[in-house]
TrEMBL record:
This is Nitrogen fixation protein NifS. It comes from the Bacteria. Gene3D superfamilies: Aspartate Aminotransferase, domain 1, Type I PLP-dependent aspartate aminotransferase-like (Major domain). Keywords: Pyridoxal phosphate. Residues 25-241, 302-399 form the Aminotransferase class V domain. InterPro entries: Aminotrans_V_dom, PyrdxlP-dep_Trfase, PyrdxlP-dep_Trfase_major, PyrdxlP-dep_Trfase_small. Pfam families: Aminotran_5 (PF00266).
Length: 407
């Protein structure tokens, strides 16, 4: 079954917004459009339930129930327990809090592995632990392809390593890393894994239970939702790490790594992401019961649509002598986040695209280490063309026409 793109687009008010008419959105990796169920829940919360939650009066009770619903449904879709999923102000902030927990957990001389393929949010906080006696080892990408070789990881793993941090896919390389295989390698060596899923989750929620990751992080605002960071920390690890919240919240899994007060309205609105996935599942006659199976069904629908649209983009740019495609040229191996090194700085080219109705970005996208490793000047940056399942075939055709004109 193919994705019903007209039904999908009808769930996003942006596609009916007059001020956006005629503009094709290709900077989804920076933040996606928001689906109607999220907007509806956020509006309802602010108009009917904007009170301190979990008190006995109705508005407060309903507010707390909706916050709990968001955790329960998203956790079930990702194949984890409800108390293993929590929200924070951003993935960057969530990663920082986790790094502080590991600082209290690890001993001097023990090691963490990071990559230079990451967005800085899943690299910088871990690297700073070197200031506290933690050894930081870098799993380096291939300087031509941006690929992470498992053989190189094997050489870095030993009994000193406690944590391996890597992206599900990079926000500039785009290649989908084999999370389950990497996790198995790390676990065999006695290490935990932290997976940055920010650039993957918008293309279909992953089943973290099946992947085996100990930590999985992504951003709701890039996954059709509100501006929150979603964090899964599996119970076995969470109970080992020192509490980062108020002392009286230390025995509550989803509060343990949330030192600040939660954003009640945005957490409640995150249940709209689950609403949207369920709507897609039902519309396409997907499974009727298990939430993880339903999310997996929608994941596959999204990916199939994206792969179909992505391959023509890769074919159009891979052999041009005026651009360098970063990452694989096979759409099955990557997310639809396409970074191009140009012969000139990227930002002015993005501005030219904007004049012709293509919304895209140019810059380093907080992947400075990856760009440097690829021999790209971060000041010049890359042109990034990123889309997701709500992008239409006509928009891709327009992109290719305009891109050829501008280049």
């Amino acid at each position: 079954m193919s994705l019903d793109i007209e039904f999908v687009r009808s769930q996003f008010p942006a596609f009916a917004e007059p001020s956006l008419d005629g503009q094709a959105f290709f900077e989804n990796a920076g933040g996606s459009y928001t689906c109607q169920p999220v907007i509806d829940r956020l509006t309802r919360f602010y108009t009917q339930r904007k009170v301190q939650p979990y008190a006995p009066y109705q508005a407060s009770r309903l507010a707390g129930e909706e916050m709990d619903e968001a955790r329960q449904r998203l956790a079930a879709m990702m194949g984890v327990e409800t108390d293993e999923l929590s929200f924070g102000p951003s993935t960057t902030q969530n990663t920082y809090v986790l790094s502080q927990a590991f600082k209290g957990f690890m001993e001097k001389g023990e090691a963490i592995i990071v990559t230079n393929q990451d967005h800085e949010a899943n690299s910088g906080p871990w690297r700073r632990l070197a200031e506290h006696g933690i050894e930081v080892r870098e799993w380096q990408i291939d300087p031509q392809s941006g690929h992470l070789n498992l053989e190189d990881l094997a050489e870095l793993l030993d009994e000193k390593v406690r944590l391996v941090c890597f992206p599900h896919c990079s926000n500039v390389v785009g290649e989908i890393n084999p999370v389950a295989d990497i996790t198995t390698m790390a676990h065999t060596a006695g290490a935990f894994v932290c997976v940055d899923g920010v650039s993957y989750a918008p293309h279909g929620l992953p089943n973290v239970g099946d992947l085996g990751a100990d930590i999985y992080l992504f951003s709701a605002y890039k996954t059709y939702g509100p501006h929150q960071g979603v964090m899964v920390v599996r119970r076995a690890l969470a109970e080992l790490l020192p509490n980062q919240a108020h002392f009286f919240n230390g025995d509550v899994g989803y509060k343990r790594f949330t030192p600040a007060g939660p954003d009640h309205a945005q957490i409640a609105a995150s249940a709209g992401m689950a609403d949207y996935i369920d709507m897609l599942c039902d519309h396409h006659a997907g499974p009727e019961s298990d939430p993880a199976e339903r999310a997996s069904f929608v994941h596959d629908l999204m990916r199939a649509h994206e792969v179909k649209l992505l391959q023509p983009v890769l074919e159009a740019v891979k052999d041009r002598n005026d651009v360098r495609l970063i990452g694989p040229d096979d759409a099955n191996l990557r997310a639809p986040t396409v970074a191009l090194q140009l012969k000139t700085p990227a930002e002015p080219i993005a501005a030219e695209l904007a004049k012709k109705g293509i919304m895209a970005g140019g810059g380093d996208f907080y992947a400075v280490r990856a760009l440097k490793a690829l021999g790209i000047d971060p000041a010049a940056g890359v042109l990034r063309l990123s889309f997701t399942h709500y992008t239409s075939e006509n928009e891709v055709k327009k992109l290719l026409t305009v891109l050829d004109e501008v280049l």
